[in-house]
Write a structure and sequence with these properties.
By secondary structure, this protein is mainly beta. The protein has one domain: Porin (Beta Barrel), CATH 2.40.160.10. It is 5% helix and 56% strand. The chain has two helices and 18 strands. The longest helix has 13 residues. The two termini are 16 Å apart.
């Protein structure tokens, strides 16, 4: 821990800010999630499997405030699941309540999406490389770590409950190629609004994306919009979201998309998510559904053929065993189509039994 504090002190000092403490304040959090995942694929070759599931994360947040009242914060995450070190950028928080994220700033539309409840657990059926229907509301987002996101203060533009942000990233040094795709940047705007309707708190939020690609032959770019709504009444939370757009990706020889070995695009894509969560004492019940579709093909040609599709229904029960310890039982059923035909190797059901210990 001492080493991290010294590193933070050197970083803050390099900014040339007078009156900053010699060492930034630091907080830690993380979890260890351990369980068993069972999968029963519709394809007889894949069959039924059981396997252990273990994921760990460790996060450090570093922050300090200048004599002028400007907050400066950053941090990093260690993830055993992805076996990566993910460093954050720098966030400046002004006395007005506005914020500015610098480096790895994110997308404004993602920032303001209302949270849609869903089932807990690590269950799932792996996707085949040729099944590319969207599964998340943020499927059209992208960009580069060189960028910024500016957040307004609460009650933006004099409207109670309104927040907004704008983000921009650019990867001007990325090499252009004739076929391969890499995100070259993205612009996004987003907003969220929170209001009370009797005993219910309603949140609605989302935004727009517009990206660029390094491919010189691509007919497509990452673009689209996403919107979501949630309502909380006592112990019950319900939510629904919708996203529409185009997703450009990179296909390699090990992950061909309908025979393409270069970049691919999923066009005319859309996804709907809905879910509910109910808390009863130490027990939380959650359900969620997802339905997505999109047409995939070579980024350098007009996409044709039938849509891929994704449909999933999930449910879970979580029990707070002790402070920071939660037991989870989850289940999901997934159905995928490739070009209008059932993809049995990427469809089936899955269950999860495990526990999460957090600090």
């Amino acid at each position: 821990m001492k080493k991290e504090l010294l590193i933070a002190s050197a970083l803050v000092g390099s900014l040339g800010l007078a009156g900053v403490a010699e060492a930034a304040s630091a907080t830690m959090s993380g979890h260890n999630r351990v369980g068993v995942v069972g999968k029963d694929a519709d394809n007889a070759t894949n069959g039924s499997t059981n396997a252990s599931s273990r994921q760990s994360t460790f996060s450090v947040s570093l922050s300090e405030t200048t004599d002028g009242g400007i907050g400066i914060s950053t941090g990093f995450d260690l993830s055993e699941e992805a076996q990566t070190l993910d460093q954050s950028g720098i966030t400046l928080t002004f006395t007005s309540g506005a914020k500015l994220d610098l480096i790895e700033a994110g997308n404004a539309a993602n920032t303001h999406l209302a949270s849609v409840p869903g089932a807990s657990g690590e269950m799932g059926i792996s996707a085949a490389t040729d099944t590319n229907a969207p599964t998340t509301l943020t499927f059209a987002s992208g960009g580069d770590n060189v960028g910024f996101e500016f957040h307004t203060a609460a009650d933006a533009f004099g409207v109670d409950g309104l927040k907004a942000s704008v983000s921009f990233s650019d990867n001007s040094d990325a090499a252009n190629t004739t076929a391969n795709h890499t995100d070259a940047g993205m612009m996004s705007v987003g907003a969220s609004y929170v209001t009370d309707a009797g005993d219910t708190t309603v949140t609605i939020g989302g935004g727009l994306y517009q990206g660029t690609t390094t491919s010189t032959t691509s007919l497509y770019e990452d673009e689209g919009f996403a919107i979501a709504l949630s309502a909380v009444t006592g112990d019950l939370t319900v939510g629904v979201g919708y996203a529409d757009g185009t997703n450009v990706g990179q296909a390699t020889s090990a992950a061909n998309v309908d025979g393409q070995t270069d970049g691919y695009a999923v066009t005319g894509a859309s996804v709907v998510k809905a879910g509910a969560k109910y808390v009863s004492g130490d027990i939380t019940f959650a359900v969620g559904v997802t339905a997505g579709e999109g047409n995939d093909g070579d980024i350098a040609a007009a996409v044709s053929g039938s849509d891929d599709s994704y449909d999933a229904t999930s449910a879970s029960i979580s029990y707070a065993v002790a402070s920071g310890v939660t037991a989870v039982l989850g289940w999901t059923d997934v159905s995928r189509d490739d070009n209008g035909s059932a993809a049995s190797d990427a469809s089936g059901s899955s269950w999860y039994v495990g526990a999460t210990v957090s600090f």
